[in-house]
Write a structure and sequence with these properties.
Distance between the termini: 9 Å
Radius of gyration: 16 Å
Shape: globular
Strand content: 15-25%
Oligomer: single chain
Order of helices and strands: EHEHHHEHEHEEHEH
Bound molecules: BIS(adenosine)-5'-pentaphosphate, magnesium ion
Number of strands: 7
Length: about 210
Amino acid sequence: MKFFRAVIVGPPGSGKGTISSMITETFGLKHISSGDLLRRFGASQSPSVQLAMKQGKLVPNEMIEDVVFPELRRHTHWLLDGFPRTFMQAKSLMRQHPVDVVVNLNVPDETIVNRLHGRWIHIASGRIYHSLFNPPKVAGVDDVSGEPLEQRSDDQPTVVQRRLDTYHKEIYPVLEFFKGLNLLKIYTGTESKALWPEIQKDIKHFMEK
Ligand code: AP5
Ligand code: MG
């Protein structure tokens, strides 16, 4: 297969990053997360991008495309996480990089606020932990590199609520758009491990198509 391009969509804290690791390890895809890319550039980001992220608002479309699209061009088989988040972004993606399948994690909001409170991340790799559900071997330390883990400044409950509100406000037309193209697969539940077998089966099917 020459190209395989998938998108994963879901509310903040729904487990996009967690499921993405399962998908990319199993199928050899490159994980491209818009949020991870933004965080990796960190202090070199413009003040308006840093502020938008801290407040749980979306960064402007042109800026996010400048970060994401060059990365998409560098790889043939990828899983895109965190993009698109608006109808405009969805149209722009399909114009420039048509995708093969869209995985939608449909996780209730109540599950999410609690989860994000315990999240720890390794910024350089994007590896994700949870203090209760998926703890690192040594508290506060990345299992692979031994480097310190960090908590995200946008994981405080008030900012999480803003991110959830933004998500619900923007995502409906995005999901409708992909549904109209017959690309949308919806997975409803709270446990990433319980959703995984169905997702794995479907991705395999789409890759073999
Ligand atoms: P981004 O980094 O994309 O954040 P997000 O969409 O809010 O999603 P998260 O990364 O918070 O959650 P996730 O679904 O990956 O969950 P995870 O697997 O970590 O974006 C951040 C910001 O960047 C945005 O607010 C915006 O400002 C900007 N931005 C990014 N893309 C943009 C775009 N396209 N346009 C404009 N602006 C953009 O899981 C969460 C936690 O739960 C972890 O601790 C994990 O270990 C734990 N967990 C996962 N699954 C389970 C489970 N089943 N049981 C228990 N714990 C679990
Ligand atoms: Mg994530």
